[in-house]
């Protein structure tokens, strides 16, 4: 049964924030960085490929892996969690969706103006002049192709890199400031499908707590912040959020 505190807060709150992590996309079949890679990539460590050093050492290998990830994201479909979050967002006057995910499943479910803390798979940029390239390869990569040369910048001719935040890099300043501001002004703050371990994103929950917001964690696993949030719900984001949506507005 849905916690009545959440239902009451959703009906009353004007400033609601969602922070989503890899667990939400995993419900659409997109593997998390903690999952074992599959097929051609099973002997590779995702965390070792997602670094500036790996791109410098072997750019075709890293670009090939990101083309594989783009192909997976393009073939995935938004799940019940994505749809429920979009439906909630349509009913809240001041709604902010912050995601650590680099796919576009939130947008395809109908969410608008999503704050992507870790960048986006569909965007790339020149590593020299910074010119942005949207889906620069312009093709669906073969899942059997491991090494692909990165494209060249249409502006300066230098190498193009994936438009995501790699381990060891700073978050985009604008996205991070928007996320901090939203958390500090929130009245109701959901953290869904994230381990709450990756910093600085994990600190957003603390900012919401400090602001006096009702904080709600939704996760099938324990994360260690159960004692600090207002409500901790065990279960998949899709199932739990669909139940909350139905209990609050009768939407199924």
User: How do the strands of the widest beta sheet line up side by side?
Assistant: 3-2-1-7-8-9
Instruction: Using the 3D structure, state the CATH architecture of the largest domain.
Output: 3-Layer(aba) Sandwich
- CATH superfamily placement of the largest domain: TPP-binding domain
- What is the CATH fold-level name of the largest domain? Rossmann fold
Strand residue percentage: 15-25%
CATH class of the largest domain: Alpha Beta
Largest sheet: 6 strands, parallel
Separation of the first and last Cα atoms: 15 Å
Query: What's the count of strands?
Result: 9
Task: Give an overview in words.
With 252 residues, the chain is an alpha/beta fold. It has two domains: 1-30 and 78-118 and 171-252, TPP-binding domain (Rossmann fold, 3-Layer(aba) Sandwich), CATH 3.40.50.1220; 31-75 and 120-164, SIR2/SIRT2 'Small Domain', CATH 3.30.1600.10. Helices cover 35% and strands 18% of the residues. The protein contains ten helices and nine strands. It has helices at 4-12, 22-26, 46-49, 52-57, 59-75, 80-89, 105-108, 173-185, 203-210, 237-249, and strands at residues 15-20, 94-99, 115-116, 119-126, 132-134, 160-164, 188-192, 214-219, 231-234. The protein has a six-stranded parallel sheet with strand order 3-2-1-7-8-9, with helices on both faces. The chain has a three-stranded antiparallel sheet with strand order 5-4-6, with helices on one face. The radius of gyration is 19 Å and the shape is elongated.
